[in-house]
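idk why but the lab printer keeps eating my pages so im just putting this in chat instead. protein + cytidine-5'-monophosphate:
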Amino acid sequence: MGKSMTELSGKRIVLGVTGGIAAYKSAELVRLLIKAGAEVHVVMTENATRFVTPLTFQALSGHPVWLDPWDDRRANSMSHIELSRSADALLVAPATANFLAKLAHGLADDLLSTLCLARDCPLLVAPAMNRQMWQNPATQRNIVRLQEDGLHILGPDDGVQACGEVGEGRMVEPETICEALISFMQPKVLAGKRVVMTAGPTYEPIDPVRGITNISSGKMGYALARACAHAGAAVELVSGSVEMDAPYGVVRVSVRTALEMHQAVMARIAQADIFIGVAAVADFRPRHAAENKLKKTQVASPVLELEQNPDILADVASLPAAPFCVGFAAESQDLETYAEDKRKRKRLPLVVGNLVQDGMGGDENTVTLFDARGAHPLPRASKQVLAAAIVHHLAEMLG
Ligand code: C5P
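predcted complex ->
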């Protein structure tokens, strides 16, 4: 999924690299953090420099790499205090078993551990080690202690290890670490809220190989699911078939037809505080799906008998204890008239309208929000930026 360039802009991240083979992946992590807009300062332990040279991180981050507490770039030897005071977050990736043990006991015998002890910003760590080191009771004890201390532990993953063994202990992938950090830095305006959403197209079978569908990339819906999760909500995304992975932290329920989508939504809606219908649901489905492939020799001009699908959004909005409902209106003309009509007819507190020619399939869109107070046009932006703006508006309406 295309990430916005601004999600970490203005943020100063101190990245600690300790001595494990996963250190080579931290080079990619620096690149991703910078791509997301962050200013990155790298601190390496002495052992880390045996795996990757400081020059690599210096070139990627555009800043000198910090190596030891007696670094003479600061005449008064106060670099650890300065670095941690100006940071928005400290991230240690990879974090070895030894480094986690030091953190758990408050040891400060090198620059990075001193920085961690002297910090007044959040600390996230991505453990990376052999599976037996990870499973060792001492490591597990340290992890529990670190969680109690308020650290954020990312991973580790399961899988093949550098030593050839298979198990838990791999560092989570740089993309996931970056995404977790982005998520961590966003204001939690939907904390404690449960969101059920639909996204993507539905597919209505005619026979085993043919069907009726709508054109929908699912990009806006997925961006919104991601933004809701970033805002602290628990998100269940009922999705038609799309070419994207579920966003980090979002529970995806895959469906094919409108009826399956309807059922999956209704099964979850009682617990939801918010429902957002972004899916391009097919309005009609063939009355009978043929069991076998239709042959052109069978009928010269077949007639498809269609019947209406349920309107998922309207059904949710008319529940006795309906959650806060958000609808989408993609129109080819007269946006304001149609979107306002949809808002009133389906009794929705909020409708997000766009002209199909402005956004379909692409990474950008131009949308207008319609609520009881009127129309609120948003500047043209990436779907990710729009999603964050929609969540902001939604959170304000919820008070
Ligand atoms: O009526 P229209 O299809 O234009 O309304 C669009 C909104 O209603 C979208 O939010 C869409 O996800 C939702 N919808 C639905 N079930 C349908 C049709 C539309 O949830 N059968």
